[in-house]
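In the current project phase, our protein records have gained a structure token line. A sample record follows, to show the layout:
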Amino acid sequence: MSRTLVVVSAGLSSPSSTRLLGDRLAQATTREIDAAIEVVELRDLATDIAHNLVTGFPSPKLGDAIETVTRADGLIVVTPIFNASYSGLFKSFFDVIETGALEGKPVLLAATAGTARHSLALEFALRPLFAYLRADVVPTAVFAASEDWGAADGPEGDLTARIDRAAGELASVLGGRPGEPVAEEEFVPFEQQLARLGITSSR
């Protein structure tokens, strides 16, 4: 069964490391499940988002983007980190989405920044935001600092591992692959357990 996976990128430049990270997460997820990928570039909607905040009404272009996000089977949301938090553009986009529209939707969180000092923003800024929106956020969030984009045997190798782990979690939530089988515990009667210990049961 094909699914729709939407990448929401708040990168401001073109090309941007934010979009690159979103693309890599989407590609890793589609190695696990059959999904069509769509991308919403917030930099192209900045003016529309600002007008919506003031007027309360989305433009047709913004309305289409909101519909794309709300009808998606799963989301990968990626923001650059500014001043230890998500960007204003990123937050404003989710501010104009109707309350409850993301409830129960699987979401993978990701962020980029120039330094690893901003990595905790995923946990104290992004995760609480999407918990408030009642989205189903996967456990692993992916942060990429400038030094993470390198050789495969350096920090880049760690980034690849984090991408694969988070993508696997998202694929699992989307039902694209079965979970690990739960091993059944061997039932051993109490008397046998005592016998193994050399203890005789008395009643």
The longest strand covers residues 74-82. The chain is about 40% helix and 20% strand. Confidence is low (pLDDT under 50) at residues 177-185.
